[in-house]
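During data preparation, we tokenized the protein backbone, and the record follows.
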Amino acid sequence: MALNDEVRSYWEQEACGTQKVVVGEIEKFSREWFEKVENHRYQVEPFIHSVAQFTRHHGKKLLEVGVGAGTDHLQWARAGLDCHGVDLTDEAIETTRRRLEIYKLSSNLQKIDAETLPFEDNSFDVVYSWGVIHHSEYPEKIIAEIHRVLKKGGTFIGMMYGRYSIASLKMWISYGLLKGKPWRSFTDVIWNHMESIGTKAYTVPELQSLFSSFENFEGTPITTPAELNHLPKFISRLIPSSWGFFIAIKAQK
């Protein structure tokens, strides 16, 4: 089975952020269900709004690569963008479509593998992808496609995982050290135990290299609330943001 087929199979089970621990017994696709998903997302990742700055892009043409549960896609539509979205799974496309319908908003949504995007060159002002590209078998192909479909001067906004982080250390302790396998690398542990199989994580210089075709690149690590859970407050205050598992990315073509 090809890696992207395994990734697709994993995420077809449920769109990201819609697991039962989040939504409980609430009826799927109800307004209350979606609001629960949205509230949880922005509680655990409160920095998304400051990175995306949805309303600053009013009137622009947007492509989101990996729409997931449609929570961020809804913000783009609410902000008055011409929205297009792609995802590897039927589950994400249907979830996002239902999410937008509740608010009488729309988007051109397509189920496709983003390693080959079905859009002409220089089509979009903004491409957005939050926590998606690192799941692909060939992230470099998606990034090349993003560059191709962006207009000159257009902006990519997104997030990819950072390898040397508190979250990575916790995973290594759980799946390496405590399993009697301290020789396992962070790369190996993340590949096999972070969400779908084949998940990758990077350093900022590695991401800069992946985005080398862009004129400008900014990679900013962010320490997430989940990484600091169960740590004494005096320790969590000493942890630098450079140890964050999320690397927020802005790159201009």
Q: What stands out?
A: The two ends are 35 Å apart (CA to CA). The beta strands are 61-65, 82-87, 108-111, 124-130, 150-161, 216-222, 246-252. Residues 3-162+199-225+243-252 form a domain with the Rossmann fold fold (CATH 3.40.50.150).
